[in-house]
Amino acid sequence: MRILIINGPNLNLLGQREPAIYGAQSFDDYLDTLRQAYPQVQIDYFQSNHEGDIIDRIHQAGYGNLSNLSNPSPCDGIILNAGAYTHTSIAIHDAIKAVTIPTIEVHISNVHTREPFRHHSFISPVAHGIIIGFGIDGYRLALEGLLKMLAR
Ligand code: DQA
Q1: Which tens digit of pLDDT belongs to each residue from 73-110?
Q2: Cα(108) to centroid of ligand 1, in Å?
Q3: Which atom of ligand 1 is nearest the CA belonging to 9?
Q4: Per-residue pLDDT for 34 more than 60?
Q5: For the chain, the helix, strand and coil percentages under 3-state DSSP, each to the nearest 5
Q6: CB under 6 Å to ligand 1: residues?
Q7: In angstroms, what is the span from residue 84 Cα to ligand 1's centroid?
Q8: Partner of 72 for a Cys bridge, out of 58, 65, 106, 111, CB 3.0 to 4.6 A?
Q9: Mean pLDDT throughout 112-120?
Q10: Over the chain, what is the mean pLDDT?
Q11: Active-site positions?
């Protein structure tokens, strides 16, 4: 089983960025514990602050072997926190629709208790499941759900 976690813009600063909202743990530390807890799963990780790079990585996960990208194997599912692109990106919405593997949408914070511009998601209508507001542990919850979904 091979799962790709994608984090969008500003999520490279987890642990430093607004810790009252996003927590004090870096994603690298969290990813280490997640990988140890799921040794049977290959967990790939990609973070980018650039919309097009996120789209390329979704295509690669779904179809593999895109010539200019380094890691050619397709994977079984995607866990995506698109950051602020969640609220703006029709292009990421279309990329998720363009691949057949399932995508789980994750948000660390409960976006619905925050500013109104965070209440709309372009990802939700094309996501197979959504985990919102459980802090960084949301990625583990998404992985649990995705593995169960793929086992069906
Ligand atoms: C976020 C919520 C978004 O509104 C915000 O732009 C982020 C992080 C979250 O994980 O809570 O960058 O996706």
Answers
A1: 689 999 999 999 999 999 999 999 999 999 999 999 99
A2: 7
A3: 12
A4: yes
A5: 45, 15, 35
A6: 10, 81, 83-84, 86, 107-109, 111, 118
A7: 6
A8: 65
A9: 98
A10: 94
A11: 22, 107
Cα separation values, 83 from 2, 38, 69, Å: 23, 25, 22
Q: Give the distance (Å) from ligand 1 centre to CA of residue 140.
A: 17
CATH class name, domain 2-151: alpha beta
What does the domain layout of the chain look like in residue ranges?
2-151
Q: Which ligand 1 atom is the nearest neighbour of the CA of 132?
A: 11
Minimal-distance CA residue to ligand 1 atom 9: 107
pTM score of the predicted model: 0.95
Report whether pLDDT(50) > 80: yes
Q: What is the arrangement of strands in the sheet containing 103-107, beginning at the earlier edge strand?
A: 42-47, 2-7, 77-81, 103-107, 129-132
Please state, in angstroms and rounded to a whole number, the distance separating the CA atoms of residues 12 and 30. Answer: 12
For the record, the structure tokens of 5 come out as 């976690």
Phi, psi of 107 (to 5 degrees): -135, 130
